[in-house]
Structures are given as structure tokens and as C-alpha cells.
Write a structure and sequence with these properties.
By secondary structure, this protein is an alpha+beta fold. Strands 1-2-5-6 form a four-stranded mixed beta sheet. Strands 3-4 form a two-stranded antiparallel ribbon. The two termini are 27 Å apart.
Length: 100
């Protein structure tokens, strides 16, 4: 869950950011953004977004006050991680990570 107050001129950045967070972490990412005019300098773009572990927009709010809902598959992030193989192909003996 990513709460935000992203400004209107950067709507495309907002969408790309949420999708890349989902893809980078292989998780569902729900970006919840403010909408409307706070004052003359602060106008928020709305467009709250749910992205799946592949970074695909599953559901998105419009650029006006609204609500949306979506269903997520609990096992899907694990399936994506297995398909990518990043965790499976690690070789921990190659790097030294100090235990805390």
C-alpha cells in the first residue's frame, strides 16, 4: 500500500512508479493518491492504481472522485517469482552478508 499526494502535472510518472514498484518487487502494489485542489499551488491528480506483480494495471481510479475494487490472487506473486527465477538462481556463497 503506497499512500501519496502526487501532483497533477506528473500523472504519467505516478502510474509508471506504481507499476515499476509492483514489477521490481513481484508483488501487488496499490497506490492511493489524493485528488483535487488543495490550494492554487497544490492540485493532486488522483488516479489511484492497483498493479499486479508483472506491473500490469489491474484497476485504476479516474481523474475525479471515485472508488474502485478489484480481486487479487493470493498465490500469484509466488508464481511470478518462480517464473522469473531470481530467487531460485541466487548463490549466497558468492557474497558475504553479515548477520545482524
Amino acid at each position: 500500500l503506497i499512500p501519496a499526494a502526487f501532483y497533477r502535472p506528473r500523472i504519467d510518472h505516478w502510474t509508471g512508479l506504481i507499476q515499476s514498484i509492483a514489477l521490481h518487487n513481484s508483488v501487488y502494489a496499490l497506490g492511493v493518491n489524493l485528488f483535487g485542489k488543495w490550494d492554487d499551488r497544490n492540485v493532486f491528480c488522483g488516479r489511484s492504481l492497483l498493479a499486479d506483480p508483472w506491473g500490469v494495471a489491474v484497476a485504476q481510479a479516474s481523474d475525479k472522485p471515485c472508488a474502485f475494487h478489484s480481486y487479487v490472487e493470493r498465490d500469484y506473486p509466488g508464481k511470478i517469482r518462480d517464473a522469473i527465477g531470481s530467487f531460485r538462481n541466487r548463490v549466497p556463497s558468492v557474497y558475504d552478508i553479515p548477520s545482524v
